[in-house]
Amino acid sequence: MASKSYFDLIVMFIVFVSLVPHLVFGSSRSHFLPNKASGSPVTRMYGICATAVTVHGYTCQEYDVTTDDGYILSGQRITAGLAEGNGLNRQPVVLQHGLFVDGMTWLMNSPQQSLAMILADNGFDVWISNLRGTRYSRRHVFLHSLHPQFWDWTWDELVTHDLQSVIEYVYGQTGQKIHYVGHSMGTLIALASLSEGLQIDKIKSAALLSPIAYLSHVTVPFSGARGPPVITSIEYNPSGVDANNYFKIVCANPALNCFDFLTAFTGKNCCLNQSIIEFYLDNEPQSTSTRNLDHFGQMTTSNDVLSKYDFEGFNILRYGQLQPPTYDLTKIPTNFPLFLSYGGQDKLSVPQDVITLLDKLKLHDKDKLKVQYIEEYAHLDFIIGVNAKDIVYNQVIQFFRSHN
Ligand SMILES: *[C@@H]1O[C@H](CO)[C@@H](O)[C@H](O)[C@H]1NC(C)=O
């Protein structure tokens, strides 16, 4: 009882503090909410372009996309590679990161090993997206990131707002259909989106690395006991004060190393560079919302039914029905080009769960579905493995070229 009222006090305090700007400036700014996605190139001195792309000699442009529900997402466009042949009809590719990370994950290794720069060198027009709540996407047209309402979402909203807005913006800027690469949660939101037919006319193909749709075989910690639904969603910052900078403390302990620690969460990654791990932990993990985490928890007990967030007693209020609506992945058009790559050691995209996903795609046109299984790969090998270029990215590029 005592701890509950203490929690309530903290929530009330946060709400109060974050309401102050509203009380002072009023909420009339909501009138400026765009009714569809809008965006623009911007100049940022210390963004991802400056810290991780232009230092290697690549041309990189920061851009902002305002989602239709008011979040201002930052992104990075790599417009040219180092190789010759730049400027010729470059095909746009959107890179979508996963849970607890941001777009930086595509840029951690050397340029010869990092997907974003490899794509640029292969003549693609690379657009990196950063989802709401991550380091460079913590702005909103009128909500402060300390306001609980800023965190009132799960990946359902990433499907209906962030992804749609980014796709619409990139399509508007380039006038071309888009190739998509997602990792982990970046695959989940694409699959959900494709199953709902959202923006499907603007996407040319999708490469899904460590695909996630069903989590029945996941054993990592976020699959904790099912609690009541999260009604007041707040920020969950795994490296913040609340988590006691958990990640870094574990890594500083010589008795445990970061490899072991990451292994517990992601599986036994075969091919990570020790010096990259430290860089990775300096840059990640990133915040998400508590309800989003709970949504993943719900997925672990959902008997292979992919649903929107289950508000239980509040479903009627939210959805007008007792059970949350489901995403039917068999509705993904069977002629939509899909490339799936999954690893035998992955603890988040577990092979048995990927097989459940492949079963939903069993009627897919054979020449439109390419599946790659890499026995020794775990979750992070797909984005920061030192040999991912040879094993995975070359396949992705070949796949994109054959579905132009
Ligand atoms: C590991 O990272 C270091 C520092 O970035 C780099 O010098 C080295 O070549 C990398 N090793 C491999 C195998 O990629």
Automatic annotation (TrEMBL):
Keyword Lipid metabolism carried by entry: yes
Molecular-function annotations in GO: hydrolase activity
Keywords: Hydrolase, Lipid degradation, Lipid metabolism, Signal
Single Gene Ontology BP annotation: lipid catabolic process
Superkingdom of the organism of origin: Eukaryota
Boundaries of every Partial AB-hydrolase lipase domain copy: 53-109
Pfam families xref list: Abhydro_lipase (PF04083)
Region forming the signal peptide: 1-26
InterPro entries named among the record's database cross-references: AB_hydrolase_fold, AB_hydrolase_lipase, Lipase_euk
Gene3D superfamilies, alphabetized: alpha/beta hydrolase
Active-site residues from the entry: 184, 346, 379
Family: Belongs to the AB hydrolase superfamily. Lipase family.
Name the UniProt record assigns to this protein: Lipase
